[in-house]
Structure formats: structure tokens, C-alpha cells
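seq as requested:
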Amino acid sequence: MTNDLIIDDFIGFNTNGLYCKYGDFYLDPQLPVKSAVITHAHADHAVSGNTNVYATPATIAFMQLRYAKTTGKVINKINYNEPFNLGGVQITFISAGHILGSAQVLMEYKGVRYLYTGDYKLQPDATCEPIEWVNADVLITESTFADSAITHPDPVEEIRKLNNIKSNILLGAYSLGKSQRLIQLISQHAPQKKILAHHKVMAINAVYERMGFKLGPHQIYGRKLMKLQDEFVYIVPPFTFDSYIKATGVKRLFASGWKNLQVNNEDTLFISDHVDWNDILFTIEKVKPTQIWTLHGNGSHLKNYFKDNIVVKMLN
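C-alpha cells:
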């Protein structure tokens, strides 16, 4: 593929979000739009009120749980690897490995393949579909952790650290994706722990179970249970975690890839659902693009790394 066939403004940001004017649709719009192609159901990628929504069945299920009737006027459930067409652009959802139902968006237009990753991860995760690989001329990648100084540790080894904590644990995590991954990992690698889940997490767990993803033993939180010191792990969303800042009788931990979200110097839990530097380099090897477009982070490290070997363009 020669670079002169790649359309430099195939996608770009406007006031509503990331827009493809050639197909007249948005990718993960930030405001309600006429046609929204949504990669996954995290709130920063999936807003309510769109007219036409295109997403995987799991993403739709999570959006309907959160937004009910305001999910969208016309709901289009699209399975992985089933192409559809918007405005002359052929679109195919490819598994992204980020959370259940997450998708990369392969867009084919005038002989050029543009792959928008959305959020994605390469680490094994029993609570979602693994990432799939396709070749593309342009890789449009998130760059949340696109820095050679950042590498994610083995999540299994991180979870095993909980075995050394004998007190009850208050574990902060995002309700969708991270909480379910934690339940599965703790059940497998710290099985003596008794897992309690916040009611908002439980509602999402029910969707996972309905879709055939078994998470492992857990139950809804009960105040009487947490008064006992019996190696309980209470998984709560960030707003609840922050409200329990003065909680006693528990070790407070927050599961994240970000250092600034770790709340204990002696006990950290680095578990990320995003790619790190080495993962991005591996992705580039698999996708084999001639151009890399970055967004959702700092793409300057990739630009400096590839220099003149691959064109790297920062979209934000």
C-alpha cells in the first residue's frame, strides 16, 4: 500500500468527537449524534441519546443496563467479523480484548484499511473475548500508556499479593470490566478470599453470567459480613471507594495501571486493561501498518521511536 492512497483526513475530531466524514458516522462520540459506532460500553466511549447505534451485543446490553430507553433510537447489534456498510465505508468489528464485547473497528474505503483499536489489551483475560489480529494500512491506536518507561506487571502475580494480606480488603475498581476480571482472578489465585460485590457491580455481573462468562464465587455486600475479619474482599466502584476514605478494619487498595491511583505505598495492585509500550510495539508488528495515528494519550514517544521508518501522526 502506497501512502498516497491513504486519506489524511479520513477521521478527525470535531465538537461531537471522532468523525468519519466519508461515511458520515462517529467513533465513540462524546455527544449524541446521528450515527454512532461504539467500541465498548465504558462511559467515556458510549454516551446515551444517539439516533443510530452500532455495537456488539454485549456492548448494547451494558448500555441498556445503564441508559435504558436512551441507549439509542435505532439499535444495531453487530457481531464480530460481520461487515456492515455506512456511507460507502465497510465496517467490521474485531475483538479488542479490553472488556466483554469490546471491539476494534476495521474501516475499508477505496482500497485502504483503517483500524481503530478503541481501548484494547493483550494480557489474557477469562472474562472477555481475546484480541484478534488483522492487517491494516493505518493503525489508529490509543496511546494511554505509550511510553517506554511503562510496562504492566503480570496480573496473576499482582493478585497473588493479596494472599499476604490477612485483614479484610476494600478494593476499588471500575464497575464494568475491571471488577469482573478481579473476581475471576481472585477466585482462581487467592481462593481463600471471600468476595463481596457492590450492588452496581452485581448488576453488571448478571450480564456476564447471562452471556456465559462465569466469574467465580462471590456475593452481594452485607454490612454484617464486613464487620467480621474473615479475609473478605469488598469490590466497590470508585465513588464508593472514595466515600470510604476513613474506613477502619480494612486495607484499602485500588486496582489500576496508574501509579497516582495507588493508595498504599506498601501494598499496590497494578492491573490495567490497556496496552503498555511493549504491547503497542507487538500490535504494530501484527497489524503491519504503513502509518500509525495516535489518540487518547501522548503519541510523541512512538513518533520518536519510529522516526522515518513509519509515519506517526497524533490526532489529539
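The first strand starts at residue 12 and ends at 14.
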